[in-house]
Amino acid sequence: MTNDCFVCQGPSKHYSYWKVFEYVQCQNCNLIYLKENPTEEQIYAAYDGGKLKNLRRKLVSPFRRLEDFKIYEEKMKTTSQIMDIVNQYVSEPGKKMMDIGCNKGFLLTQAINRGFIPYGIEIVPVLMDQFKRKFRQYRNNIYSENFSKVSSQVEDEYFDVVTAIDVVEHLQNPRDDFNNVFRILKKGGIFLAQTPDNHSKEAKEEKEHWGALKAYEHLILFDHKSLELLADQIGFSKVEYYEPIDKNIGNMLAVLTK
Ligand SMILES: [Zn+2]
Q1: Confidence check: pLDDT of 37 > 70
Q2: pLDDT tens per residue, range 100-145
Q3: 35 close to 58: Cβ distance less than 8 angstroms
Q4: Residues less than 5 Å from ion ligand 1, measured at CB
Q5: How many A from CA of 11 to the centre of ligand 1?
Q6: Helix (H) or strand (E) holding 164
């Protein structure tokens, strides 16, 4: 089945090939997206790193603490920078924050440090083993179903903050998911997202070799124009940008306020 530009249904033009997959770009809003998505199986295999990596993770997981990961110090630094941005909007303790695609829970660890009640979604459950052991009181706030399933059980205006670091580009039903993020956010709440920017220096220079073009994983690639158009359609009142935390592939870091 061929996809349309889900933001504006505008006409699209060839952008690049990635193996057998074709990326096209909307000539109206600039969104880059796959003409046809990969299968569910191909998408999931790309996430969990394949059977061997997953088995290895399961075997060593019980003996590892969150602090034992080599990337721990670095992640504590970058996630603290993200929380600095969050705190510009929401700073009182006791607020609820949901991190979609929470991986090993580094950002949620910093959210706890800042007084937030953490909630997370990670579709590869073994990744959150260490976090759940470290923060047993919050282990029931961690879900391993996809966002649409989890959000369907969440009442309106429940969260103060929703974050999605390197997640938006993976969404298979982006309009539904954006609508649901909006619905579960309180008025004045924020959606903070880091995602590749198809208008970044890296995207422009590297063209079809741009690191964000990976068809099994990245289904939609925004620029400011397409993201702002979507945010406006959904009802967000403003979109503001910050220095992205990971700069290597030409990301943007956007905060959408409800
Ligand atoms: Zn479009």
Answers
A1: yes
A2: 999 999 999 999 999 999 999 998 899 999 999 999 999 999 999 9
A3: no
A4: 5, 7-8, 10, 26, 28-29, 31
A5: 7
A6: strand 159-165
Q: Which of 200, 120, 132, 118 is nearest to 167 (CA)?
A: 120
Residue 88 CA, ligand 1 centroid: distance in Å: 31
Sequence-distant (≥ 6) Cβ neighbours of residue 70 within 8 angstroms? none
- The mean pLDDT of 41-52, rounded to a whole number, is 73
Provide the greatest CA pair distance for the chain. 53
CATH number of 12-257: 3.40.50.150
Separation between Cα atoms, residue 184 and residue 153, nearest integer Å: 10
State pLDDT tens for residues 193-214: 999 999 999 999 999 999 999 9
Reported residue count of the chain is 258
Name which residue leads in pLDDT, 29 or 64.
29
CA of 136 to the centre of ligand 1 (A): 44
Residue whose tokens read 């996630």: 79
CA of 123 to the centre of ligand 1 (A): 29
String of b and e for 39-78 (b: at least 16 CB within 10 Å)?
eeeebeebbeeeeeebeebeeeeeeeebeeeeebeebbeb
What are the boundaries of each domain within the chain?
Answer: 12-257
